[in-house]
From TrEMBL:
Function: Catalyzes two steps in the biosynthesis of coenzyme A. In the first step cysteine is conjugated to 4'-phosphopantothenate to form 4-phosphopantothenoylcysteine, in the latter compound is decarboxylated to form 4'-phosphopantotheine.
Residues of the full protein shown: 183 to 411 of 413
Full protein name: Coenzyme A biosynthesis bifunctional protein CoaBC
Keywords from the named record: Decarboxylase, Flavoprotein, FMN, Ligase, Lyase, Magnesium, Metal-binding, Multifunctional enzyme
Positions with a binding annotation for CTP: 98, 108, 126-129, 145, 159, 163
Native organism: Aquibium pacificus
Length: 229
């Protein structure tokens, strides 16, 4: 069979969006299909790792051979990830909602004629990647994603320190490359740059499947100590 360079390694992956309830029928969410995160979990499992996927609500199937925990909100995702530590590596692909409403209403908020829209009080969600990246039980390898529409590299580089990550996988989601047919979000292709403290590696545009396989190989190199710092 194929070589299993990640045999014996425990790896946590987050994927998909989070949904933050406003009331029982409405929510705030980021755009994310889960395609890239689920493909990464599967590709890492194919290299022999014990993969734990923490997924927000998505329409893609649980990858075969991967233990999948289903969550809805950022706080649930954070709790599920923390429960899975210690691990050898953690890869944060989920598009986590940055904010949630301060209290979600127990009943559907009524539209009152002439009453105007409700004033939603927002609070910040926990940053799961930053929490893990700076945690005493931090995995040896922590990888984040950055979907940027401008200043891609400067933003990704700043994110390394702020989030305590070893690598940031940056993808440009501005104009043509973003939402919609042929776009990154929901589409099957992706063009990424791998940003580390030692520089930037540009990968050509390829399928999300190929990005996942290349990233899985990079994880295996890094964990075996072959990668550059
Ligand atoms: O700050 P920004 O949202 O651009 O950071 C993106 C990276 O941080 C992704 O890896 C994402 O999964 C992670 N993240 C997180 N928790 C949040 C926000 C982002 O884990 N609340």
């Amino acid at each position: 069979g194929r070589p299993k360079p990640l045999a014996g390694r425990k790896i946590v992956v987050t994927s998909g969006p989070t949904h933050e309830p406003i009331d029982p029928v409405r929510y705030i969410a980021n755009r994310s299909s889960g395609k890239q995160g689920h493909a990464i979990a599967a590709a890492i499992a194919a290299l022999g790792a014990d993969v734990h996927l923490v997924s927000g609500p998505v329409n893609v199937a649980d990858p075969a051979g991967v233990g999948t925990v289903h969550v809805e909100t950022a706080r649930q995702m954070r709790d599920a990830v923390m429960d899975l530590l210690p691990a050898d590596a953690a890869i944060f692909v989920a598009a986590v909602a940055d904010w949630r409403t301060a209290d979600s209403a127990g009943e559907k908020i009524k539209k009152v004629p002439g009453g105007g829209p409700p004033a939603l009080q927002m609070v910040e969600n926990p940053d799961i990647l930053a929490t893990v990246g700076h945690h005493e039980r931090r995995p040896a390898l922590v990888i984040g994603f950055a979907a940027e529409t401008e200043n891609l590299l400067a933003n990704a580089q700043a994110k390394l320190d702020r989030k305590g990550a070893d690598l940031i996988v940056a993808n440009d989601v501005s104009h043509g490359s973003g939402v919609g047919p042929g776009g990154v979000m929901g589409g099957d292709r992706n063009r990424v740059r791998i940003v580390s403290r030692s520089g930037v590696e540009e990968w050509p545009e390829m399928t999300k499947q190929d990005v996942a396989e290349k990233l899985a190989e990079l994880v295996a190199e890094r964990l075996s100590g072959n990668g550059a710092s």
